[in-house]
Amino acid sequence: MAAPERRAFAQRINRTVAAEVRKQVSREHGGSPQLSKKRSGSQQLVPLTEVVEPVDFEEYLAAHPPELEPGPLRDLIEFPADDVEVVREPRECRTLEPGVPDEGKLDARVRDAVQVYSEDWLVVRRKYQRLSTMYSPNTAERQRQRQRGLPRQVFELDEAAEEPEELKRRSPSLDDTPRGSWASSVFDLKNSVADPLLPALLEHTAMEELDRCNEELRKENRHPELLALFPAPDEDEAVERCSLPEVPREHFGQRILVKCLSLKFEIEIEPIFGTLALYDIKEKKKISENFYFDLNSDQVKGLLRAPGGHPAISTLARSAIFSITHPSPDIFLVIKLEKVLQQGDIGDCCEPYMVMKETDAAKNKEKLEKLRGAAEQFCSRLGRYRMPFAWTAIHLLNIVSTAGSLERDPADAESERRGTWNERKRRTLERMSAGEEVCSFASFRPATLTVTNFFKQEGDRLSAEDLYKFLADMRRPSSLLRRLRPITAQLKVDISPAPESPHYCLSPELLRVKPYPDPRVRPTKEILEFPAQEVYVPHTTYRNLLYVYPQSLNFSSRQGSVRNIAVKVQFMAGEDPSQALPVIFGKSSCSEFTKDAYTAVVYHNRCPEFYEEFKLRLPPALTDNHHLLFTFYHVSCQPKQNAPLETPVGYTWVPLLQHGRLRTGLLCLPVSVEKPPPSYSVLTPDVQLPGMKWVDNHKGVFHVELRAVSSVHTQDPALDKFFTLGHVLEESHFPVRLRDAVLTESSVEGELRASVAGLRGAGLGPLLAHCHQVLDKLLLLIARPPIIGGQIVNLGRTAFEAMAVMVNQIHQGLEASQGQHGHNPLLAAYIHFAFRLPAEPPPTGDEAGTPPQGAAIQCATLSRATGRPASLNLSRSKSISNSNPDLATTPGSPDDEVQQILGSKGIDRSHSWVNSAYAPGGPRAVLRRNPPSSSADLKQLLHEELALQWVVSTGAVREAVIRQAWFFFRLLGKSLALHLHQAQKLEVPRRLRFPSRFVDDIAALVGTVSIEIASRYQKDVELVEHLNSSLAFFLNDLLSLMDRGFVFSLVRLYYKQIGSRLPSAQNPPALVALRVDFLRIVCSHEHYVSLNLPWHSLSPPASPSPSVSSATSQGSAFSSPAQDQRVAGMFELSGPYRRQHFLAGLVLTELALILEPDAEGVFFLHKKVISALHNLLCSHDADTRYAAPPVRAHVAQLYLPLLSVVLDALPQLYDFTENHSPRGRLVTVPGDEGDSDSGTISQSVAMAIAGSPLPHAHRASPFPLPAAAPRPAGTLSAEASRTLLACLLWVLKNGDAGVLHSWCAELPPLHLGRLLDLLYLCVACFEYKGRKAFERISSLAFKKSLDMKARLEEAILGTVGARQEMVRRSRERSPLGGQESVRWRKNLAHWRPNSDKVDKSREEVEQEVLVEGNLATEASLVVLDTLEIIVQTVLLAEAKESVLDGVLRVLLHSMACTPSALFLQHCFASQRALVSKVSGAPQRGLTRAAPLTARLRQGVSSNVLEESAVSDDVLAPDEEGICSGKFFTELGLVGLLEQAAAAFTLGGLYEAVNEVYKILIPIYEANREFKKLAALHGKLQDAFGKISSQSAGWERMFGTYFRVGFYGSKFGDLDEQEFVYKEPSITKLAEISHRLEEFYAERFGDDLVEIIKDSNPVDKAKLDPNKAYIQLTYVEPFFDTYELKERVTYFEKNYGLRSFLFCTPFTRDGRAHGDLHEQHKRKTLLTTSHAFPYIRTRLPVVHKEEIILTPIEVAIEDMQKKTQELAFATHQDPADAKMLQMVLQGCVGTTVNQGPLEVAQVFLAEIPDDPRLYRHHNKLRLCFRDFTKRCEDALRKNKALIGPDQREYHRELERNYLRLRESLHPLLSRRIPQLYAPLVPRSTHR
User: Fold this and answer.
1) Residue 1630: which residues within 8 A CB-CB, separation 6 or more?
2) CA-based nearest residue to 251, from 525, 542, 540
3) Which of 797, 1038, 1181, 1876 has CA 20 to 30 A from 1470's CA?
């Protein structure tokens, strides 16, 4: 979009709504110059584009206690006492046992871990938040639930459609007709019966009783929730939608259950042991721990069982649950088999299994017996040793694809949306590729496999690398493995998806998982996963496991008999053999834990490879003596005499702690031949110990890998250092060793800072796994600075920076898993559940933030001010601002300070302490004080420090905080709530909860973030959207915790920042969209209604300048007729309304602004704002707190201005009546005035462009006029219009009938006509289309409509540049992108698809028909209710003739729009009542009409005679003569006069009201109508009161005038004609110019219309004859001197205007402006044919006169103007210092002294030669004398007004004035002698 177009759009978006501005700005009275005057003591109205200052909420509540509020809202005025609660939620423990180590001697690291993993969750809960739309959204599903049980409405349209076609061709009988009578079918009187009689129809009933009965009948069986029948709000706009974070819990992937059923070989001679594990060959990783199973028979097991020993039940498991986080087609389930060690190679031992068959058992009986005997011997002697036997693998992809995926449950679609974060993450991982979609293990049919082929293990190919090669080879069609002779066996395995909560399950730590009903049942083991790729989840349970993987040994150089090598693994607590700990998990059919474990033995191999996995449970407290001891044995397979079974041949070990860190990873260890010497455990085997023999000369010969799965040991150097230093500080034992360095008290501070800063170097996985502990420690450093050597070290800034970097790092690393609003679910869960204030005793001070008595230590924090002024929360009592130390002065006003705070963010801070080393958190921020007397003395309030550190943050840290603002806002919010809970301040008045310094920091913080949003919305769209929503959610939280008035001021501050950027914004709609989203989130608060102060009256607290309404609005709103003005204020976006109902006012203001005609084209903004309003009203409908009708009426009262907003927006609404053109609309346009020409633009059309006196061309006339063509289509889409009308009907349905009655009573007939027009549109909008229409609608039609829209947009994109940009931006900003739901087909407007299904079931169609029928019926009944109110109002006003015709039209239209039988019943009742009310009204004569009308002509207007000429056209267009019309009666005259008085009141012409009532009073007196006389005098009192209260005149808007000249033959008769146009008071020249140019450009073409920019006389010869030229000039009313004596009041100076003046500067050489001595001025005086105001808003100019002023006369006029300005500013009451100083500066300021002084030097330096200029010269000299005197008076006045801070400024003004006076003195003292010569010569004689 081009720059001028951007500016124009921004001005339209940000400009004041016309209707609002016309009420508050007007042209001031008086001659030239005209000065802006403000009436003393009056309350200034605030335009809609500016946010009003809300009422002081807490003060308002104190002044209006809920107990004093009558009615049902009493309990909803204030928040409930239990609104915010802090709940300890027990941490869910999956296992029956807690699984944490027993309390004992635990080191600090384990103690911290145990505390983090065992303490309960601490949740701040807003008890009623479930009622807000954040957590109870208005979804389509919820709407369907609310629509259950609807009654079926009967429609004649549907029943007629059901008749067979042949029945329609003949005359139906009684049974054939839908309603059983001839009324609805072809006449067949013989077979028809009468309708049932209506009881009491012919009886006389009082009107009041009839209305009451009808109303009660209409209220029966009504659906209470109108919007429950309407489609749910657009979910794409639901920016406030939130979900509670998922409770942190242990991570699981997709889980499969593997059951080992049986294992059978051809021969059964010895025990066989199995192992299962998962491998991913693509990643080349083992992705699970081992599962050991034993399927041997009890007989075979007896070969190994020691006498009296029983295996633990946990080792008898035969089923296991595997977890797979990253499903892949490359995952194999590998099964390895082992047997007891025996003599011989693996091949030899496998031979019998490959050769012998079960069928040959008898033949091989002897061999089998021999083999069994040998096996029994080996089992008894070598039973503890194993040897590799065989292996096989199952490709899991085959299981899934063979078994086939389960049929997907229909409910999956919903669960897909509502699943937990882990589930959603899993689903995302499942869909990573097409192949992975097949191998999803979440759902497949269980499969039972029988594995028949095993491959024998090869002794030299046992490594993991060899296994991966085998597995890859298995996938190939021509696998080498298939060529090998297999070992035949039958292993039956059952594989299925694991159930959600399996019974009898053991965790990897062998803890019993709930549910575990019976401990005697064989368990299922959960197998720990080693994910193929790192899984980023925090630890939530205590887990401390170590896995040991021996890999290979090289004893080729070892001397001696070393062949059958077994490695024994032991976990030693010391060096004594008895100190071996039983921490090694048993495998199968053994004890649960053992002290040692052996690797399998490869027969006769000096360099064996190992594949074992040893699982160890690490002790909670590790010391330097804990180590792994590996002992290498040679095992004698063949028994020899005196030969031991095992001979130790080597030793090596691994100390588990190295510099305080757990040692893990791949190790290559040397092996000692001899037993290690004493104290070996504290050293590593790499150390060359003296006297020890090593294998292969101390080279590394044993490869082993250690893998820890621990939630205690971080295995990250940066984290280890950070935690270690933290524990060192807690224990305070110095010196301490850290790695290779020794730390003392003097050096630990630097190391601590470095460790905190070094957290950014931590790995993402470990950082996330331990993020709860890290964040707890950082927050502890912020809130409780450590003491080192008796000195406090303030690490707040360092810790805050580290936290910001850490959170940003986590976000960037897990960008794909972000939730809505850019929140990381893991961090959100930490704040919601785990975060708590650092453990400290509560403060003992009396006030928040006050240190306890006797505190010996204060932390080095920012200098803070303690006082908080009552006016606003931002001004300071000290010279240094807490939130910004660069502010060195006290601001003059709150807004000024906001600007200073926010503006100073860009200043140079190089000399500020913010960048100083001594700033809080800086390297030298240490206060050297005495040691503290108690730990409580060190406590700082965390929320204060967080806010402070954020405010003063700079650079990259500030950017990181901004990017993750949601985290810090949430952290801040919860810390606030926890502080209030711990300090027991939740019951304390909100103003006393927090100190002023913290309140100031929050204000500065919100202002800063608002500026970020406003300045970066174009560059970082996604960031700004998240930042915007985060700020809104934060303010939403603050509404439950802080001073609510203060939070409103923060909302206002945000609005100011956004509003200030709109005029210069490149893309204003984007900013407005952000603002609407922000407001929607803030308004989603669960106590939104209470926040809007829903009192009976608009009664804002006393203000310095209270308005009339606020001064008299302390009681009930409708207690007396005198409060009618306040009733009208409830229906307008007035100042008092917007102040009291602050949030509702903002919502409706946004709606009013976006519905302005000038804001057209922003379709997605229409949708966004209307959706926000719709969402609010839906939430009220669904909220059980507001279910009672009286309460609902109070809630609806908040939205009463919506009626006025929609009335004003009627031209923009979609016209649903186009399908009913024969019936016509109430729309009328002014008739032709008779001066039209067929070849040119008609006078009526030109008048419409110029501005009709009727409020809008579409408004209904107060008199019955012929129906005209419908209005042009509006700017709103059909869907947006329909939603807006539904909201309107909600207000009408739920609003208090008395309030609506009072409002209608105040509406003039013109506005009542518009209201009827709106009701007419509502009937058409919600017309029932019939069941057939629903059945015809299909997805094809919907797609076609979207295609039409897309083609239309393509056409636009291909032609017009500006619109191309607009449509593109609309697509980008719209949540649906190009699929924005704008309906382009009218016949589809009533239908909105609620799913993506192509076809709907019959049940769904029936339900839609049912809902639509109920909606149409309810909408019609609401319209009928409103019509009844209008009728009653009109009857009371006795002006019914002008409105009742419109009422009848709406009634007839409602009966024509396929009504339901229920509605028709009530409609006929209302129609009968209406007819009875208006029939028989007495007609009276006009005995006094004529003379009284003559008086009216004299007193009201000089144009009455001319205007009355249209009476027979307007009053009685269908009658022969005026005298035979219904208005030519006394009653008709009275009705017309009452309408005239109402119109004058609406237009602010209160003086004319008196003249009208002078005629009405004698009529009422003659008829003894004293009640009407009382009401009339009451209205007179109001009129006179308004005249006196608005004496200054600026409140009354009488108009602005422009001269418009037409030039060119294209204008026809208008060529060279000049007119004076009357426009609304604040209309700018550019506005009317643009309007006229656009109008005529549409008639003649864009290139043929040209605006003449100047006001000079037009030379027609220089104009293009083929073009049309328009010249516009602003003119002012002109009065002669004698007229000014008569026209004293502001009204008189703006009424009866015929003469107008405009001035044109020129020089003799043709330039407009020149030097002073050559500057002339032309004054042009215009006289119109009639006086304004007139029924037309333009009048022709009938006389023109020009006056030329010479340069000196121009100078005289300018100096008189300056002098008058000075006089006005000096004597203004009350005094306005700012205005006075502004005028003074313009007169005597140094920069403008050249103005007056140059005028004097040009014209007064020399006496003119021309005597004709003598008097001008003298007059100018006298003007300057008066000018200097006025300057002196103004300086004296200013001196009395200023404060001490402006004295220097005043002295400068005085010095400037003295210099000016000295310069003028010689010029003013020179007189012209000729002027002072005596007229008669003096006589020299006496």
Assistant:
1) none
2) 540
3) 1181
